[in-house]
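Q: Sequence in, structure out?
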Amino acid sequence: MAKPEPATSHPAFPAHPGDLARGGSQSGVRLYNERLVLSLIRRYGSLPKAEIARVTGLSAQTASVIVKQLEADGLLLRQRPQRGRIGQPPVPLSLNPEGAYSIGLKVGRRSADLVLIDLMGRVRASQHRTYRYPEPGATLDFVRDGIAELQRDLKAAQRARISGLGIATPFELWNWEKEIAAPRDVLQVWRAFDLVGEVAKLSSWPVQLCNDATAACAAELSFGIGSRYRDFVYFFIGSFIGGGIVLNGMLYQGRSGNAGALGSMPVSGEGPLGVLQLIRSASLYRLEQLIGNQGRDPSMLWTMPQDWGEIGQPLDAWIKDSSIHLAQAIVAAVSVVDFEAAIIDAACPPDVRRRLVEQTKVQVAQLDQQGLSPFAVLEGTIGSDARAIGGASLPLLANFAVDREIFLRNAG
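A: Exactly. Output:
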């Protein structure tokens, strides 16, 4: 059932797109309905007003008023009329990519990224920096310079539509110094470092923080193949593997924000009681070690995430081990929650990701799945930028998206 219909009054176009989301003098009902329309169009790509009214349950008049105002706010665009039908041809409406922008920052153990995305989730500009290990001071220098560079080609009106900055970073960044060969005293500085507060000093936008793998899951849910599924488990392979969980079309973060800590899942291996954590096999630091054991430089793994060149045997061995353990983790996850799909993405070249997913499918097929409903194993669609894009999606979702569970219930 749709929300009660709101009054038709509406304030003038806000100076900052976030003002629209905060509501101003709008009623909560109107704000909900505007977000509902934006979320609906994001899901379907484009819809005419009549279809918007039908799916939401709003009257044709109310849907028309909301659409008109969203057009005036610069958030919707009219497409070509759909001719060939009797009567007035319907005019599809789509999101205006330039209706809002957002910045995402990924701080990882081997690299940092900044991206500027538009309302459609498309990357408009990006900055990338690699390092042996992350340091707070150097990170802030990168953010300061990178933000200026991201905005360099934007007009003043476009800059005014930047809705916020989202940070995606691993929880407890100071851990695992042995695995990445980082000085303990340098990483321990992160324990007391207020990343959100320090980044906020470098801009005038709201700043939000999210676990990096959870942020990558949010990117897949909002802009990738994940939008097709109500329930899925998501794996992202970076220096360390992590993940996310989507239930009823919503990102589920758990009581402490640590849901989807899939790297901690026990799998078979040479550890106590014959098990080890998934993070110790299906992570890029393990591939780095395998390459280093041959006396070779593994730095291409983070300096050239789109083209690793020829790695050979170490990569073959890593894909074999990772696929075996990913398959075990997937089947275990599906046995707890009846997921429709498992999605695997990684900070690696697309051809490597494809090989890994295909091998994982082979391994899943060999496991005993008695008692489980069928599920899909899918390749992620965002890639190496998923964590930064996920960070950037946080302000857009906060400002312009309706609660996804309510949205899907209304749109089903």
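The mean pLDDT is 87.
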